[in-house]
Amino acid sequence: MYHFHPDKQTATLSRSSGRHSDCVRCCAVSARHAGGFTLVELLMAMTISAILIMALAGIVTATQSAWKHTQGIEDSQAEITASFERMKMMISQAGVYQLDGQAPQVGLAVVTRPWNYIDVPDILVVWSGGRNGGISQSGVLNRLPLMNELLIYTSDPADSHQFVEIALPDSTAEIDFNDSSFNSTIRSAIESNQAEKALLSKRLKNSQYLLSGSPWGPAAANIIFQITRTPDDASLQTIAPGTSGWMNLPWPQGTVSATSGLRQVTVSYEIQFETAEQTEFTDINSATALPFFGSSSRLYAYTP
User: Fold this and answer.
1) What is the distance between the alpha carbons of residues 280 and 273, in angstroms, rounded to a whole number?
2) How far apart are the first and last CA of the chain?
3) Which InterPro entries match (predicted)?
4) 63 φ, ψ to 5°?
5) Per-residue pLDDT tens for 181-219?
6) Which residues are CB-contacts of 141 (< 8 A; sequence separation ≥ 6)?
7) Residues contacting 138, CB < 8 A, separation 6+
8) What is the pTM for the complete model shown?
């Protein structure tokens, strides 16, 4: 027989109600996890991911930029080293000629080019005997150099970003380094159809005057050549051979006699090269170019 007890029923119902509440909470939690992340959680995850990706992209970009700059410096150094070695070899082999009644003349000269009302010494002329050199092996010659025996180092007239070696193999005209028309003759020659160019570098820095912040006038390559003679021309023209003044001149290695002495001609050069190739930069007054310096000498016997 079943006996109904109100208190027990109440207690039983209370226990049943507690179990039902726990089940509801458990199901709610299970349902929430089964449904995925909340919108707030997704937004936080996306924000953190974006920050990490941006930081990683910045590191990769900086690394690539540093590598490219370093590689550009190495390439510039390789090109300028090859160019300087080429010039050094030809300068050391420059020929010497001496006409009747004149002092010996070494075949080295710097030619200026007008740029914005100033003359820029950016053309080097070497009497080498041509691209293969060897004219110095003939000793002091009693004739004028020929145009096809010259090598000219300068920027390409057609593209001032290019450093070139120019030869004139088809021109057999004579040229005197002491002639007043020497500069104009060389400037005309490098722009003529007879000029054959050998590319040494495509990285020459170009500069342009700025007037009130705006470019003004033509751009020009950053090249400077300078020639120093020891003893200098003025001393040799005013001091007679065999005198004490002659003997006390700064002859290289102290090599001098009463009638002759060892003279040195030094060519110094400064050339600014970009760290990027020509196709990769457009700036004229670039701040990334690097200056390179060099010098080469030619020793010869000076007998007036």
Assistant:
1) 13
2) 152
3) N_methyl_site
4) -65, -45
5) 999 999 999 999 999 999 999 889 888 766 666 666 778
6) 95, 96, 97, 98, 135
7) 95
8) 0.76
